[in-house]
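Entry 14. Structure prediction run on the chain below.
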Amino acid sequence: MRIKPSSHLWLLFCYGLLSVPTVSADIVIDGILDEEAWDSAEIYRDFVTVEPLTGDSAKYRTEVRVITNSEGIFVGFSNYQPASVKRVNRQFPRDSQIEADRNIVSIDFDSTALAGYDFTVGSANSQQDGIVTPGDYSGDWDGTWYSQTSSNKDYWYSEMHIPWTVAPMTDAGDGRKKIALWFSRVVFDESLRFAFPNAYYSRPTFMEDWQPLEVEQVSTSTLDWFPFLSYSSDLQSSAPGVSSEQFNGGLDFIWRPNSSSQLTGAINPDFGQVESDDLVVNFSAFEKFVTEKRPFFTENQSLFSSNIPNGDQTLYTRRIGAGPAGQGGGLVDIDLAAKVTHFGEATDLGLFVVREDDSEGSFGGDFLSSRVQYTTDGLTLGHRLTYAERSSLNREATVQVLDMIWRKNETTEFRGQVLHADVQQQGNSANNQQSIDNQDFAGWASWSYAPNDEWYHSLYLSHYGDQFDMNDMGFMKRNDYREFSGSTRHDRLEYQADSNILSSSSVFEYGMTENTQGQRLDLRANFDHTWTYKSTRKLGLKAGTSASSWDDRLTRGNGLFAKPARYWLETEYSSPRGNDFTYSIEAKIKYDEIQKNTLSLGFSAQLYLSETVTLGGDLSYKNLQEWLIWDFDTVQLAGFDADRFNADLSFDWYPSARQEVRLKFQWVGIDAEQVDSYQLNGDGSLALSASSASDFSLSDTALQLRYRYQLAPLSNIFLVYSRGGYFASDNGDEGPGTLISEGWDGVQVESVIAKIRYRF
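Output returned:
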């Protein structure tokens, strides 16, 4: 969509560039706790060790000061860390895992133990935030908050300002509000974490154990505007009459009429990628999950979060704007989107709607999701609905979910959902005259029991009907199956004083899956043991087996394949994590009678050239002695002697506190030479086929160079160069050198994007 940027938008940007946000008249967020107001703060000192989970008094003193006023929550950490203890002061991109000394504040703004907001500050003032829910964590959320750090010989300090407007909360009604807090500190070079109060992620009562705090209820009403302007140029465009240059403009906004309600909207949102997705080369019968990066779909999303323990999701926002599966139409523009939430004393409500461009040939659709959640005395009951309509396909899909979380006591928790899907489609020319009238159920239940900090047990049971389908707006790997799985974990938290081991853990996992016809798809057991040493080195060993079973997806509906028993052994080693050069090595071998040996090797490394410059890389190699995949050309199974190469290289540089330069390169290469082709016998075994499949080689490369300048929190200028190349041949033995060079030279996508987004 080409538009001419309006003068009004330019005026807004100019005003924003000249505006400097005022944080507080009393406290300046500079990492130095020298303001008089800190003298009257609430103070927390009794930190205990939670990594390892011993509950012992913290090895190094940590003090947290908390002030609340009309502008929000102010938190100041004083971290005693003598010069003899190495400080790891590394800088990382916003929302990356901070592999350094760090402070964490988690806040439950309603003290209901249903959702907490995580604010992490590294010792070099790197920021990370996310949402904690019972048994889960999402780093997709971004909030507007402020921090700074400082240090001297024996201490380092962090100072944070978290505005009340960062998250919705209920109205207490009487002017006093109960919230809950959890503070933690990581001493990275010694693999230690201290916390106050004594609460930890592995406990079923983790969020219930947070420190209560009563504050004065602050009535907030805010309206934030996020206009954007972007320019993109397709450097590979060669279509006659089609411009390679495009200007876009649009607007996101967030309106909080009060502290408990929020409306988020977007008009002509720009979902052009300023952060590239990972390369995916997928030969399996199952879709790969891709994380969400678009601001509208991550802001205020906790109420709609719908993760299932097996990795499925009732609401998978990457469906929106991606176009319908199988149509080959590519991305679809989004005209407008809106999301409203209200958090009540016991009942929370949410509504989410998106309208795609439905012009001729776009296959655009309309999407809706609603959420109702009621909580009382450790029991949470809820209902969610998703609805997707694509008028060009005459298709409607509705999924309704009833869900429950019951915390029976401090050691035991039950969860479950019942899902119903209804998909209706009338045949027309756009859907190949395919009519669909499917209704079916799915459901799952889980039980977890943690009698103490050393033991944790869980069980999971699920059923997906053979006509159940929630992939129009959700994500599921498959339907038509039943699963039972369980795990037992034991953590040894204390060793003798002269031992070089800090802690260790053992995990035993087991499970069985069958389709709804009763044919066994999987019967497996796996044992995993990991040692963490006082030097922060880690060593892990894993062994497992799966019994003979059936595969009803490999042949894409052309019969059942009888899988033989499989065995695997894996080991992994990680170097001390506080060093300037850190690395991990892993090796894995699998064996079964048909595919023979599969060997996987991986090497991951980070080189910290300075506190502001980092080189990183992940390299992996896999040799498959007889890789069995479906060959669509000959409509049969084919076995290949294959080599697969993966590379993921990165460079991060921070010229200043507001600037970031990131270079990311990814490569996937495959050489596959045919061994044999097969037809299925009636009993699912393989019979040699006279038809041969072709050898093949492929190479996929992607590079992105991105510069970001932060104007203010959540306000940025981006300059992005992206390049992607692809190569394929029927050689099967090109070798890694040829694959990477041909994949790089075979440019298919090359673009430049400039974008500015500012928060008013």
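The mean pLDDT is 89.
Filed with the rest of this week's runs.
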